[in-house]
């Protein structure tokens, strides 16, 4: 789940990792980026990708979204700056509700939602604890006065996940996995 580039990028490689019987759910509420997503799916025959024209968020319902038509689009409340002309109301869904609507719970979630990662995790924290989902999150955003990786580290630790954040690959990412039992 997350945002994907228009060339053979993350989405292509994720489909290769999971094989033909797995599924990638790609959430993208930005109209321009959704068009790129559909073109990417078609161009590369990604038959195991399910496009979802919704935002992942901390609560299900309407959300004001900045339609930038780039990788910087996002939930307006979580972005450092937005232009009024770019704002549009979109459907938003929590991780828990997305799983319920899609009829399955993923084993892995890759998320880059421009600073809304903390709210998305908070909005489904108890569900995540019970479901044992693995995460990789782009966490180099500023939200509520701190970098998102710090809040994500605390949230995942709170539910007993093994969590670590690193900028080893040129930007900050947070990895979280359920505790081994």
Secondary-structure map:
Layout (H helix, E strand, L loop, with lengths): L9 H9 L5 E4 L3 H13 L5 E4 L2 E2 L4 E6 L7 E2 L11 E7 L1 H8 L5 E4 L5 H6 L2 H7 L2 E5 L3 E2 L2 E2 H11 L3 E5 L6 E5 L4
Parallel strand pairs: 1-2, 3-6, 7-8
Antiparallel strand pairs: 4-5, 4-6, 8-12, 9-10, 11-12
Features:
Rossmann fold, four-stranded mixed β-sheet, 181 residues, alpha/beta, 30% helix, disordered N terminus, 6 helices
CA(first)-CA(last) distance: 26 Å
* Widest sheet, order of strands: 3-6-4-5
- Helix-and-strand structural type: alpha/beta
Total count of helical runs of at least 4 residues? 6
Report the radius of gyration as a whole number of Å: 16 Å
Total strands = 12
Secondary-structure element series: HEHEEEEEHEHHEEEHEE
Binned, the helix content reads 25-40%
Shape: globular
* Biggest sheet architecture: 4 strands, mixed
- The CATH topology label is Rossmann fold
CATH class: Alpha Beta
From the 3D coordinates, which CATH architecture would you assign? 3-Layer(aba) Sandwich
Oligomer: single chain
What is the number of independent domains? Answer: 1
Q: Write down the overall mean pLDDT.
A: 83
Q: In percent, how much strand structure appears in the residues?
A: 25-35%
- Fourth-level CATH superfamily: Vaccinia Virus protein VP39
Instruction: Identify low-pLDDT runs.
Output: 1-8
């Amino acid at each position: 789940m997350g945002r994907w580039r228009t060339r053979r990028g993350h989405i292509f490689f994720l489909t290769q990792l999971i094989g033909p019987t797995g599924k990638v759910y790609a959430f993208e509420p930005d109209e321009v980026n959704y068009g790129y997503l559909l073109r990417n799916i078609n161009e590369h025959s990604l038959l195991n990708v399910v496009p979802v024209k919704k935002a992942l968020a901390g609560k299900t319902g309407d959300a004001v979204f900045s339609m930038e038509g780039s990788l910087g689009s996002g939930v307006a409340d979580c972005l450092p700056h937005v232009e009024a002309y770019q704002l549009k109301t979109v459907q938003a869904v929590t991780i828990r509700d997305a799983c319920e609507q899609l009829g399955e719970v993923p084993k892995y979630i890759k998320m880059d939602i421009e600073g809304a990662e903390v709210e998305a995790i908070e909005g489904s924290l108890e569900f995540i604890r019970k479901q044992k989902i693995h995460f990789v999150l782009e966490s180099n955003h500023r939200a509520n006065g701190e970098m998102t990786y710090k809040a994500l580290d605390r949230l995942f630790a709170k539910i007993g996940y093994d969590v670590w954040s690193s900028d080893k690959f040129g930007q900050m990412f947070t990895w979280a996995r359920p505790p081994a039992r």
